[in-house]
Amino acid sequence: MKVLWKEFTKMLVVSNPLFVVLLGFCPALAITTSLDSALGMTFGLTFCIFFTNTIVSLIRKWIPNVVRIPVFIVIGATFVTIVDLVFHSYVPAIWAVLGIYLPLITTNCILLGRAESFAQHNRVVAAIGDGLGAGIGFGLAIIIISFFRQLFGTGVLSILGHTIVTLPLLNEHPIGIFILPPGAFLVIGLLHALFRRTGVEKSE
Amino acid sequence: MNSSNLLTIFFTLAIVQNFIVAQFLGLCPFFGVTKKLSDSISMGMALILVMVISAAACWLITYKLLIPYDMLYMNVVVYILVIATLVQIIEMFVKRTNANLYNAFGIYLPLITVNCAVLGITLINLREEFSLIQSIVAALGGGFGFILIMAIMAGIREKLELADSPKSMRGLPVAIFVAMMLGLTFFGFGGIG
Q1: Closest in B24, B81, B173 to A29, CB measured
Q2: In this model, does residue B2 exceed pLDDT 60?
Q3: Where are the domains of chain B?
């Protein structure tokens, strides 16, 4: 249990995939237009990383070193297919918003990165903690990004149809750029600069 | 993107729906390889090659194998395996036949297997129900847009090294802001309204 918690918090904060290690940019920019899609992505990615890490760690002694990358990719792709089918049948609205970015979890650097650099060398419990930490750490990062994008881009903050906050002036005249693709770069760039300023992240 | 016109598909994917700044596909090499102009062009060339061949191969497999046998739900697993295999074959082929070419972009080939632009174009082709020719043109357009942005970005970043940007902005954050401006510019090609 201790190992699990240690690996979990390590991935969650110290080496947060998106903010510190800089992995997984593509979905972080593409699907952060609303909190709903960020939550859907978090769930899908955590599920895939959790199972990929577990299975890779379980069979790590039988994977020949030369073909390990294809093996990891196929294991990952299998769980991505499961997530894709589950989302399609149970939450079709979120499935439609996520679009091709859901199947593209297959080529997500975090998924492969954790299998390659952690799960194949470690015991199952540690790999589970690492996988959950990476998934949820990434999830937190994209939820922070989508929070700002949805709040300023539409003036209304809502989760699953429930409105939480409505900004008085902004909901009539929202700052459209936050919802547009360039807005994703704007928010993530500002967050990175902020983290460097406050010393969370090292400057170059 | 519903128009069947090939030119429309090409320019939509190259400019308006640009892979990097509008659809966010293939961002890892975008921030990693764009520090030098020559590197970014070699990488882009390798990517176009893989994208076009994968798009054609995946189209054939989809319509001649997966759909007739009702196995379309397997598409992600099949596509990624096809792409990984193709990349290996292309790498061996280039290595044997043309040493100069291999030195120019051989080292980027393994990276391309896990580039979301390649899997992305095959999935886009599937969702838009493109024909074989349309798929190939879409892959060419996407790849062209990719090279275009990579080259522009590398050119800017070479100058940016000399610029006196604020300390906490140096390096990645300022590169992300440049990407934002490029995104805004390319967004303009979509027209207003």
Answers
A1: B24
A2: no
A3: 13-187
CB B96 within 8 A of CB B172: no
CB atoms A77 and B76 under 8 Å: yes
- Range A83-88, long-range pairs (CB < 8 A, 24+ positions): A83/A44, A83/A47, A83/A48, A84/B76, A85/B73, A87/A40, A87/A44
| Residue A195 domain flag | no
Residues in chain A with CB shorter than 8 Å from the CB of B26 are 26
pLDDT of B177 above 60: yes
CB distance from A197 to chain B under 8 Å?
A: yes
Interface test with B, best of A85, A100, A117, A201 (most B CBs within 10 A): A100
- Nearest CB neighbour to B168, from listed A73, A85, A197: A197
Predicted-complex ipTM score: 0.80
* Nearest of B45, B1, B120 to residue A103 by alpha carbon: B120
| CB environment B53-90: b (16+ within 10 A), e (fewer) | bbbbbbbebbeeebeeeeeeeebbbbbbbbbbebbeeb
**CB neighbour list of residue B180: distance below 8 Å, 6 or more residues apart:** A182, A183, A185, A186, A189
C-alpha to C-alpha distances, A35 to A44, A142, A186, nearest whole angstrom: 14, 9, 17
Structural domain total, chain A: 1
- Test A181 with B21 for CB contact under 8 angstroms: yes
Q: How many CA atoms lie within 13 A of A160 on its CB side?
A: 4
pTM of the predicted structure, to 2 decimals: 0.84
Helix (H, G, I), strand (E, B) or coil at A170: coil
pLDDT of chain A along its 204 residues, tens only? 777 787 777 777 777 777 766 677 777 888 888 888 899 999 999 999 999 999 999 998 888 888 888 888 899 999 999 999 999 999 998 898 888 888 888 888 888 888 888 888 888 888 998 889 888 888 888 898 899 898 888 888 888 777 877 777 777 788 888 888 888 888 988 888 888 777 665 655
Which residue of B77, B124, B177 is in closest CB contact with A81? B77
> Average pLDDT, stretch B55-67?
91
Token readout for B172 is 């990645």
Q: Do B180 and A186 touch (CB under 8 A)?
A: yes
